[in-house]
Amino acid sequence: MKKHVVLYKKLSAPLMDRLRDQVEVTLIESLDKGGLAHLRDTLPDAQGLLGASLRLDAELLDLAPRLEAVASVSVGVDNYDIDYLTRRGILLSNTPDVLTETTADTGFALILATARRVVELANMVRAGNWNQNIGALHFGSDVHGKTLGIIGMGRIGEALAQRGHFGFGMPVIYHSQSPKPAVEQRFAAEYRSLPDLLKEADFVCLTLPLTKQTQGLIGAKEFMQMGPETIFINISRGKVVDEAALVQALQQQTIRAAGLDVFEREPLAHDSPLLRLNNVVATPHIGSATHETREAMARCAVDNLLAALAGKRPQNLVNESAWQP
Ligand code: DGY
């Protein structure tokens, strides 16, 4: 008999066909109130789950006694209670690698947009306020040759370093759990303690996952260690930053600008003080959001799920200790 998979993310027709060939599929079209109620109804029978952007906690997963595998269409796994999944022997997989370059592109888009004030000045033109040649009041700052500081030198951090080093001639400094000699060699990158990086970098870029250790890593003290010309970029998770402290640093101009793709709460509240600041470029968590990359992520998640349900080790298994060969 075919196993039962619940999707809470719509897939392309070829991927749907592939799944339906091998498993029974229930699709939850959206995660609104009705969709969530439908999801809860389907959980008692589900052996596989596939989706993203939903907090799957013990309360929800207790409704799914037959669950064998969860395939997340994301690299970040902060939406999952991994200890709980592991205790129950449920295999959790994610989609690393396929989104690395696209997410680094997003990081660089934010670096360029903030430094050159692209959004603010484009809005000025659109509003019909370009009435004379621009002057120093509208100048931005250079990106090429400036110091790129990367916090969290994983795959995405490396892809950012590659762009900065080879594309923009930027000296790269980084902070991570431990020094990475191979990265240092490839990008002439230098390791720094966190306070030293915050002091030295022109661009402070967060690319690290949200964990108990990284939650709130950048707060008032850390913003004070940055300089008035520092541009802060976050493409990791909003909760790595104390958002109130960030707002204060931007309002008081103790840092120059921020390019933010992620927020403490998403979607960002319409009345967030961040949206009243000209020196903020805010995007709606678009890190990996291109047609090509989202399809590659979905394909990867389907591969992971089908492998797990067939009793094989999924390629991108997150909770190794749940795996029983
Ligand atoms: C990820 O894959 O974790 C990205 O942030 C998209 O959600």
Question: Features of this protein?
Answer:
single chain, alpha/beta, Rossmann fold, seven-stranded parallel sheet, five-stranded parallel sheet, 14% strand, globular
Report on this structure.
The strands form 2 sheets. The protein has a 7-stranded parallel sheet, sandwiched between helices. A 5-stranded parallel sheet has the order 2-1-3-4-5. It is globular, with a radius of gyration of 22 Å. α1 links the parallel β1 and β2. α5 crosses α7. The protein is α/β, with parallel strands linked by helices. It has 12 helices and 12 strands. It has 2 domains: 127 residues, 3-Layer(aba) Sandwich (Rossmann fold); 183 residues, NAD(P)-binding Rossmann-like Domain (Rossmann fold, 3-Layer(aba) Sandwich), CATH 3.40.50. One of its GO terms (molecular function) is NAD binding. Belongs to the D-isomer specific 2-hydroxyacid dehydrogenase family. Keywords: NAD, Oxidoreductase. It holds the Pfam family 2-Hacid_dh_C.
What are the segments in which pLDDT stays under 50 over at least 5 consecutive residues? none
Give the CA-CA distance, first to last residue: 22 Å
- SSE pattern, N- to C-terminal: EHEHEHEHEHHEHEHEHEHEHEEH
What is the CATH first-level class name of the largest domain?
Alpha Beta
Question: So how many helices?
Answer: 12
**Strand numbers in spatial order across the main sheet:** 8-7-6-9-10-11-12
User: CATH homologous superfamily of the largest domain - what is it?
Assistant: NAD(P)-binding Rossmann-like Domain
Major β-sheet, in short? Answer: 7 strands, parallel
Oligomer: single chain
